[in-house]
User: What shape does this take?
Amino acid sequence: MSFFQRLKDSIKQKTEAITGKFVAGLSKTSSAFVSQVSDLFSRRKKIDEDFYEELEEILISADVGVHTVLQLIEDLRKEVRVQRIEEPAKLQPVLSELIMKLMRNEQSLSLKQSDSGLTIYLFVGVNGVGKTTTIGKLAHYLKSQGKSVMMAAGDTFRAGAIEQLEVWGERVGVEVIKQQSGADPAAVMYDAVHAAKNRNVDVLLCDTAGRLQNKSNLMDELNKVFRVIQREVPDAPHEVLLVLDATTGQNALSQAKLFGEKSGVSGLVLTKLDGTAKGGIVIAIRNELKLPVKFVGLGEKMDDLQPFDAEQFVHALFSQMNDEDEVADK
Ligand SMILES: Nc1nc2c(ncn2[C@@H]2O[C@H](COP(=O)(O)OP(=O)(O)OP(=O)(O)O)[C@@H](O)[C@H]2O)c(=O)[nH]1
Ligand SMILES: [Mg+2]
Assistant: This one.
């Protein structure tokens, strides 16, 4: 076998492994969505108002979001007219292409890095969405790319939060900078930035609390943490990643709007996609917010974090339908 053939095979295997992760992580959404869509496409013989109405309901029930659903249906009507499609059975590739188009855009998916030395990522989001877990997984991901990583235990409020990050630190072999519970998170960040600089670490991942006595305290605290980091490393934080829990559906969308306005969020991480049949929320978020989805969480283990890829997402969403078609073709 030639070198190029081996290279091609190995790239193909890797791509299939990643797509496989998306397919497994999205199986709940995909099976709910696909069974309804294929039922609709095969049961109805005509593309009429009733057909569109039913498709609209299916998309809304997958949490695609009313605004985005209306836009999709509008685009679909146009394609049906232009391509003179008459049978619902022919619509699946058209629908997946339209969804893909909504989600594709120019924004860079890779995380911004420092040009000179230390890169700092700050994680924000309400309690329980998966910030600490995402930091652990991302530490593993970055290490596997050969980067040296350190973590800062900035959640000094919730009982057990520091220990939880330390468990991740041990699991992935990364040092955690911490102070005692109840300490000022800005002071923890100051320590962590200095430790990371002293040890020539490539990336510092900063955890924060999800809940304080009230919301305005939380925003004030995040601002203070942000300012301390910026004072120590002027072009940092290089990313402020807002973590959202996909199982909360439309709620995730409103949290993104709230945080996005206040805390200089530069990108999103959408967790727990494996735990919901409403993964359509990704489509709504992609379409309705200007913020890029950088990573998605597809499980609780350390390698269950994937860089987001619209094409693989849509492919995984329709994967069971394609499987059904293949079976039908045989
Ligand atoms: N199934 C699944 N579970 C996840 C995922 N990400 C996080 N979790 C789980 O969600 C729960 C909450 O995660 P944490 O990382 O503690 O969330 P947090 O945002 O740090 O929460 P606070 O520290 O309370 O603000 C944990 O039980 C995680 O294992 C995911 O992608 N899939
Ligand atoms: Mg946490």
In short: The pocket of magnesium ion (ligand 2) is lined by residues 131-132, 155, 161, 207 (CB under 6 Å). The first strand starts at residue 119 and ends at 124. The chain is about 55% helix and 10% strand. The radius of gyration is 22 Å.
